[in-house]
Design goal:
The complex is a heterotrimer of chains A (503), B (153) and C (323). Chain A is mainly alpha-helical and 503 residues long. Chain A has 22 helices and two strands. Chain A has one domain. Classes of the chains: A mainly alpha (503), B mainly alpha (153), C alpha/beta (323).
C-alpha cells in the first residue's frame, strides 16, 4: 500500500495540470491517424527537458495511456485505427458508428478502456516482482510460438471466407518480408527504392483502412452524395454503464488477455486487441453478430488494449528491459533525467516511480471522464457530408503517413496498398488479417532465426523449440486454435454460409 | 449485389500471379539463409492462391460484392486526383498547397451542388480553409513536423 | 554550371533546389531534422536527443533540431534512406555510428559508403563490453574464454546485430583468443541483446558500456572486460580492458556517435555546422545530462572525425577481409 502515500504528488498544481494536459493532448494525438502511442510519447520527450523528473514522467505516462485509448476514436468514427492496437476496435466500432450510434461506441470503448486500464495499473502496483520473473521466462522459442498462435487467428478474423482470410494473411506475411532482412542484411523483394526501408506498419495501416474508405465514398458519386439523414441520438452515461455491466464476459476476456500479452516482451500491445477480440467471439453465443456493430467486440478489444499498458511497463521498471517500443521511449525519457530503472528503482526513487504509476491510475479516470464528455459531440463527425469526409480523410492519410518517418516512400506505399486493398476487399479479402500477418511476420521470423542460432550452440532446433513446459503449452494452444477454426468452419459454418463451408 | 464469376476469376488470377512471382523470387534469390522464411510462407501462399483460383473457376467463390460499372466510373476522377496529389503534387508543390488544391477538388467533384452556385463555392472555400488551418495547427505548429515545401509551401 | 543544367532538367523542382543553395548564407532559417538509424529509446536515439537539445539557443544555431527515427536492419535502412533520398541542403542531418556503417558498406549490399557522407562532429564514444548475467559462473574474462576453448561453438554471445560494433568486438575476441564463440545477433538492438543476457538465454553478451553500466547498477549483470585501449575511469574504473587481460583487441569496435550531412551539401553550411555543433555538444546542460545518463562523451572536430573515419575504413577492411 506504499503507493497511497505518494498520491499527494499527483495532485500538486503543476503535476495535475500536466496530467490533465497530457491526457487531453494524448487523446487528440491518439485520435490523429498516423500518430501511434510510441510516436506521441517520443514527440513529448523534448517537453520534459524543462520539467522535474517526476513531472516529466507524469506527462509521458498520461500521454501513453490516453493515446492508446484515443486511437479508438478514429478507429470508430473514421475506420482508421490510430495504432495497430486499435484494429480490432474498428471492426465493430465503425459498424456501430455507421448506424448513427457513434456516441454509444465511443462510450463503450472509453469505459472498457478505463476498466481494463485501471486493472492493468493495479497489476503493475501489486504484482510487479512476480510478473517480472514471468516476463523473463519468455525466450525466443516461446515468442516464436506466440507469433504462430497469432497466425492461427488469421483465418477466422473478419472474413466471410476462410480461404480468403488465410490468403489475406499470407499477403500480409509476404509484405512484412520486404526490405532488408534483419539478421543478414540481405535485400528481399525490393522492386523500387521506396520499398528499401520495408513497409512500416503505421503507413500500411493508414493505407489499408483509410484509402478503401475514401474510395468507397467516391463510389457513391455526386448524385447520391446528399447528406445522409443520420440521427445521432444523445447517449446517456448510465445506459452505457449498464450495457458494459451486461457484457462482463467480453470485459473479463479483454482484460485478462490484455494483461497477459502485455507482460510478454517483444509481442507487445500490437496484437492484444486482436487476440482478445478473437477469443471473445469464440466464447460468445452470438458469434455471427461480431463485425456488425456488436458491443462485445468493442469492449473486448478496448479493455485488452488498455489492460496491456500497465503490465507492459513491468519489465521496464524492474529489469530495465523495454517490453514494447513505447516502453523503450519511456526508458529513454527516464535515462535523460538520470533515472535508471531497475530492481532498486522503488527504493532509490520512490517519489518518481510511484508518482508516475499513480498518475497513470488517475490518468485512466480523467481519460474516461473527458472521453465520455466529448463523445456525443465527436460522434457528429459521422454526419459530415460525404465529399468533405472523403477529402479530409485523404489529406489526413497523407500527413499521417508522412509524419511517421518523414519519408515520401512511406506515403507512396500507403496509397498503393490502399488502392490494392480496395479492390481486394471487393472480392472478399479483408484488411484485418492482412495487417495481422504484417505485424506477426517479423516477430515469428526474427525469433525463429535467433532461436535457431542459439539452438545450434545447444542441443539442436528440435529440442530447443519443442521441449520445456512453456513450449509444450504454447504448442498445445496452437493446435487447439487450429482445430477450433476447422471445426467451426466445417460444422458451424455450414449453417450460415453453406457455399463457403467447403473451403 | 455480388461479384460475377468472371470478376472472381480475374481477381483470383491476379493474386495467383503475385503468389507465383513471390514464390519464384523466394526460391531463386541468394543468400538462401535470408530467404528461408519467405520460402516457407511462399509455399502456403501459392497453395492457397491455387486453391482460391480453382474455387473461382468452378464458381464456388461467392463472397464479395464485386464492382459495378457505375461505382467504377464514380471512382475514377477521385482516384486520379488522389494519385496525382500523393505521387506528384505533394512533393513538387509542397504539402500544404497541394493539400488545399486536392481538398477543394475532391469536395467540388463530389459535391452535389451545382458548379455555378456562388454560395456553394463560398462554402467550399471556407471549409477548405478551416480544415487546412486545423491540419497546419496540428502538424506544423503543435507537432513540428517538417513537410516537403516544394515550390511554395 | 552543373547546378544550372540540373535545374533546367528537373524543371520546377530544380528551381526550388537552386533557391535553397542561394540561401546557404542565412542558414539555418528553419528547424533541422536529425535522422537516427535506430529506434526511439535506444542509446543512439536518446543521446542524440540530449546533444541536440540546445540547438535552438541563439548563440548556437538559433533553430531547434528534431529527431526522426528510421530503424531497421542494424541501421542500414536509415543510412540507405539518407544516402539516396535525403536532401543535401543542411536541413536533414543524420547521426552516424562508427564502426557500424563503415563495416556494412565494406560488407556490401547497401547504397552508401564512407564517401557518401560528410562528418560534422563527434559527440560520444561508447566502448563495447563483455557482460554475463549476475548469477553466471564466470567472474573473469579468462574463465569465459577458457569455457569457449573447451566447448567450441557453445559459448553464445548476444549482440545488437551483424556488422555493428558488438559484432566487430566479437570477431576481434575470437581472433585474439583463438576460441570459437557463437555470436547471436538479436533483433531490437542493444536492449534485446541485454535482455537475452539477463534472462539467461545466452552465455554472455557484448553490449554498450553505457547500457551495461546501468544494467550493473540495477544489479542484473556482471561486466567482465572493456574492448578499448584504456579503462573507463569515469564509469567502470574496476573493469579491465581486454588488452590487460592479455588479448590483443584494440578500440576498433568502440561505437563513435556523431552528426553528419550528405555529400553535396553546400560548403558554407558544412563550415557553419562544423563550427557550431561541437560548441553545442560541449554545452554545460548537455554534458550534465549525458553524465547523468551514464553516456561517455568524446567531442571531436570535423577534421578529427575525418581522420578517424579513414583509419576505421582501413582496419575494418583488413578485419572483415577474411570473412
Amino acid at each position: 500500500m506504499e503507493f497511497l502515500s505518494y498520491f499527494g504528488g499527483v495532485f500538486e498544481p503543476i503535476s495535475f495540470l500536466l496530467l490533465l494536459g497530457g491526457t487531453i493532448g494524448g487523446l487528440i494525438l491518439g485520435a490523429t491517424p498516423g500518430l501511434s502511442p510510441t510516436m506521441a510519447v517520443a514527440l513529448l520527450i523534448p517537453f520534459t527537458f524543462h520539467l522535474q523528473p517526476a513531472q516529466g514522467l507524469i506527462l509521458l505516462g498520461a500521454a501513453y495511456t490516453s493515446t492508446v485509448a484515443g486511437g479508438a476514436v478514429s478507429a470508430i468514427l473514421l475506420k482508421i485505427p490510430g495504432a495497430p492496437a486499435n484494429i480490432a476496435t474498428s471492426l465493430d466500432g465503425n459498424a456501430m458508428a455507421k448506424k448513427g450510434e457513434g456516441a454509444r461506441a465511443l462510450h463503450l470503448s472509453f469505459l472498457a478502456s478505463g476498466v481494463g486500464g485501471v486493472i492493468g495499473v493495479l497489476l503493475l502496483i501489486f504484482l510487479t516482482p512476480v510478473l517480472a520473473q514471468w516476463a523473463l521466462a519468455f525466450s525466443y522459442s516461446h515468442l516464436f510460438w506466440m507469433a504462430i498462435l497469432g497466425v492461427t487467428v488469421i483465418g477466422s478474423l473478419d472474413s466471410k471466407s476462410f480461404v480468403k482470410g488465410l490468403l489475406s494473411g499470407c499477403i500480409g506475411l509476404w509484405l512484412s518480408m520486404i526490405g532488408f532482412d534483419d539478421n543478414l542484411g540481405a535485400q528481399r523483394f525490393i522492386f523500387t527504392d521506396a520499398l528499401a526501408g520495408g513497409i512500416h506498419i503505421i503507413p500500411a495501416l493508414i493505407g489499408l483502412f483509410a484509402i478503401p474508405q475514401v474510395m468507397e465514398m467516391f463510389a457513391k458519386g455526386r448524385a447520391n452524395a446528399a447528406i445522409e439523414a443520420l440521427e445521432v441520438p444523445k447517449q446517456s452515461f448510465m445506459d452505457s454503464l449498464r450495457e458494459l455491466t451486461r457484457n462482463i464476459r467480453a470485459l473479463s476476456i479483454g482484460t485478462v488477455f490484455g494483461s497477459i500479452i502485455g507482460i510478454i516482451p517483444g509481442v507487445g500491445g500490437q496484437i492484444a486487441g486482436l487476440v482478445a477480440y478473437d477469443q471473445a467471439r469464440k466464447f460468445s453465443p452470438e458469434k455471427e453478430k461480431f463485425g456488425t456493430g456488436h458491443p462485445e467486440g468493442i469492449i473486448a478489444a478496448e479493455s485488452a488494449n488498455n489492460a496491456m499498458v500497465g503490465p507492459s511497463l513491468v519489465p521496464l521498471l524492474t529489469l530495465s528491459i523495454p517490453g514494447s517500443p513505447t516502453a523503450a521511449v519511456l526508458l529513454g525519457g527516464l535515462i535523460i533525467h538520470g533515472i535508471f530503472p531497475g530492481s532498486d528503482l522503488f527504493d532509490n526513487h520512490p517519489q518518481v516511480a510511484w508518482t508516475f504509476i499513480n498518475s497513470m491510475l488517475i490518468g485512466q479516470i480523467l481519460m474516461v471522464i473527458f472521453g465520455i464528455y466529448t463523445a456525443t459531440w465527436a460522434a457528429r463527425i459521422a454526419r459530415a457530408p460525404v465529399p468533405i469526409m472523403a477529402a479530409a480523410v485523404m489529406v489526413l492519410a497523407l500527413f499521417g503517413s508522412y509524419s511517421v518517418q518523414q519519408s515520401m516512400g512511406d506515403v507512396y506505399i500507403m496509397l498503393s496498398l490502399g488502392v490494392g486493398m480496395f479492390f481486394l476487399e471487393k472480392f472478399g479479402f479483408s484488411a484485418a488479417p492482412l495487417v495481422l500477418g504484417l505485424i506477426l511476420g517479423p516477430i515469428a521470423e526474427s525469433n525463429f532465426t535467433t532461436g535457431s542460432l542459439i539452438a545450434q550452440a545447444q542441443d539442436g532446433p528440435l529440442l530447443y523449440f519443442m521441449t520445456g513446459p512453456l513450449n509444450m503449452f504454447l504448442i498445445f494452444l496452437v493446435i487447439a486454435s487450429v482445430a477450433y477454426s476447422f471445426w467451426s468452419n466445417m460444422v458451424l459454418g455450414k449453417k450460415s454460409v453453406p457455399a463457403e463451408a467447403q473451403s | 449485389m455480388t461479384a460475377s464469376r468472371l470478376q472472381h476469376i480475374i481477381s483470383s488470377g491476379i493474386v495467383l500471379l503475385v503468389a507465383t512471382i513471390v514464390t519464384w523470387i523466394s526460391f531463386t534469390q541468394e543468400p538462401a539463409d535470408a530467404f528461408l522464411f519467405p520460402r516457407l510462407i511462399a509455399i502456403f501462399f501459392i497453395a492457397l492462391a491455387v486453391w482460391n483460383f480453382i474455387r473461382a473457376i468452378s464458381g464456388l467463390a461467392k463472397v464479395g460484392e464485386g464492382l459495378d460499372m457505375k461505382s467504377f466510373t464514380n471512382i475514377v476522377p477521385g482516384l486520379l486526383v488522389m494519385g496525382v496529389y500523393v505521387f506528384f503534387a505533394a512533393k513538387t508543390l509542397g504539402f500544404y498547397l497541394a493539400s488545399t488544391i486536392a481538398f477543394l477538388l475532391i469536395f467540388t467533384i463530389y459535391d452535389p451542388a451545382r458548379l455555378d452556385d456562388v454560395k456553394a463555392w463560398v462554402k467550399r472555400a471556407i471549409v477548405t480553409f478551416v480544415f487546412m488551418s486545423v491540419i497546419y495547427g496540428l502538424f506544423a505548429l503543435l507537432l513540428k513536423v517538417q513537410t516537403p515545401r516544394g515550390i511554395w509551401f | 554550371m552543373n547546378k544550372l543544367i540540373k535545374s533546367i532538367a528537373m524543371g520546377i523542382a530544380g528551381v526550388a533546389m537552386t533557391a535553397t543553395a542561394a540561401l546557404a548564407a542565412d542558414y539555418p532559417e528553419r528547424p533541422i531534422g536529425v535522422a537516427v538509424s535506430y529506434g526511439a529509446g535506444g542509446a543512439t536515439d536518446f543521446q542524440a536527443r540530449i546533444v541536440t537539445m540546445v540547438a535552438g539557443n541563439e548563440d548556437i544555431l538559433g533553430q531547434p533540431m528534431y529527431i526522426v527515427n528510421k530503424p531497421g536492419a542494424g541501421g542500414r535502412v536509415g543510412w540507405n534512406w539518407f544516402a539516396t533520398e535525403a536532401d543535401a541542403d543542411g536541413y536533414t542531418l543524420s547521426a552516424y555510428n562508427i564502426p557500424h556503417f563503415v563495416a556494412q558498406s565494406i560488407k556490401g549490399g547497401v547504397q552508401y559508403s564512407k564517401d557518401s557522407f560528410e562528418p560534422i562532429a563527434n559527440w560520444g564514444a561508447d566502448p563495447a563490453v563483455v557482460v554475463v548475467g549476475k548469477d553466471s559462473k564466470f567472474n573473469t574474462i579468462q574463465e569465459l574464454v577458457d569455457f569457449a576453448k573447451a566447448n567450441p561453438g557453445k559459448a553464445t554471445l548476444s549482440g545488437a546485430g551483424l556488422f555493428v560494433g558488438h559484432h566487430i568486438a566479437a570477431l576481434q575476441i575470437e581472433k585474439a583468443t583463438e576460441a570459437k564463440f557463437a555470436y547471436i545477433p538479436t533483433k531490437g538492438g542493444g536492449a534485446a541483446a541485454m535482455k537475452a543476457v539477463i534472462a539467461g538465454d545466452v552465455v554472455g553478451g557484448i553490449n554498450n558500456l553505457s547500457d551495461a553500466f546501468r544494467a550493473r547498477e540495477a544489479g542484473n549483470v556482471k561486466i567482465l572486460a572493456v574492448a578499448d585501449l584504456q579503462r573507463n575511469e569515469e564509469f567502470l574504473p574496476d573493469v579491465p580492458t581486454l588488452m590487460e587481460a592479455g588479448y590483443d583487441v584494440d578500440n576498433a569496435s568502440v561505437n563513435f556517435r556523431g552528426l553528419m550531412v550528405k555529400k553535396g551539401t553546400p560548403q558554407e553550411v558544412i563550415d557553419k555546422l562544423a563550427a557550431k555543433v561541437p560548441e553545442m555538444f560541449a554545452n554545460a546542460r548537455v554534458v550534465k545530462r549525458m553524465k547523468a545518463g551514464g553516456s561517455p562523451m568524446k567531442i571531436m572536430s570535423r577534421a578529427e572525425v575525418q581522420a578517424m573515419w579513414e583509419k576505421r575504413q582501413e582496419t575494418l577492411t583488413e578485419l572483415l577481409a577474411g570473412l
